[in-house]
Amino acid sequence: AQTVTQSQPEMSVQEAETVTLSCTYDTSESDYYLFWYKQPPSRQMILVIRQEAYKQQNATENRFSVNFQKAAKSFSLKISDSQLGDAAMYFCACSYNNNDMRFGAGTRLTVKP
Amino acid sequence: DVKVTQSSRYLVKRTGEKVFLECVQDMDHENMFWYRQDPGLGLRLIYFSYDVKMKEKGDIPEGYSVSREKKERFSLILESASTNQTSMYLCASSLYATGREKLFFGSGTQLSVL
């Protein structure tokens, strides 16, 4: 099974600035998937970005991008031009099969106006 | 978009009560999941179901059971609620069981057991 570690319980960023959330993982699988999920105060988690481990190119979704370092088993999330609506809990996750998804402990992001 | 609905947003129960948490999804998804979310621990899988009447244990199934009589509905049952089951419970669904599938989540049920 996978293990996922998020070492930053809380992060803060000024509006319009850039912030990077860290995530490391461990898995014995060679083919796996990595995710960042966002949980706003409404509590409904939504997918932010997804990365296939076999792809070398880092995934991007508008202001969100990842830095995927496969050898280092690192998967950080960069949020550019931070907005007040980005304030949320962010969870990193790793899966091999859908029923084997593992989540990190989460990072609470505060965005200051 | 997929809608996953959890029947209660907040629930307060007494120790020893039998508790039912209900979850319904409206997109004909094969797979449904129950997670428990605790501060500092992230999400932990309790049970999942890949088909009607099929279920498999996750990482922390003790003290819980599940029921999936219809494809769209997945229920989590606390047979005899205890204070250490006070937590946020999240239901999720996905179309396929491959690792790349994203999960669609409900808004969670905050359960307090007194």
Compact description:
The complex is a heterodimer of chains A (113) and B (114). Helix content of chain A is 0%, strand content 51%.
Structure, described:
The complex is a heterodimer of chains A (113) and B (114). Chain A is mainly β and 113 residues long. Chain A contains no helices and 12 strands. Chain A has strands spanning 3-5, 10-14, 19-21, 24-26, 33-39, 46-52, 60-61, 64-69, 74-79, 88-95, 102-103, 107-112. In chain A, strands 2, 5, 6, 10, 11 and 12 form a 6-stranded mixed beta sheet that branches. In chain A, strands 3-9-8-7 form a 4-stranded antiparallel beta sheet, with no helix packed on it. Chain A is globular and about 40 Å long. The model of chain A has no long low-confidence stretch (mean pLDDT 94). Chain B is an all-beta fold and 114 residues long. Helix content of chain B is 0%, strand content 56%. Chain B has no helices and 11 strands. In chain B, strands 2, 4, 5, 6, 9, 10 and 11 form a 7-stranded mixed beta sheet that branches. At the A-B interface, strand 5 and strand 6 of A face strand 4, strand 5 and strand 9 of B.
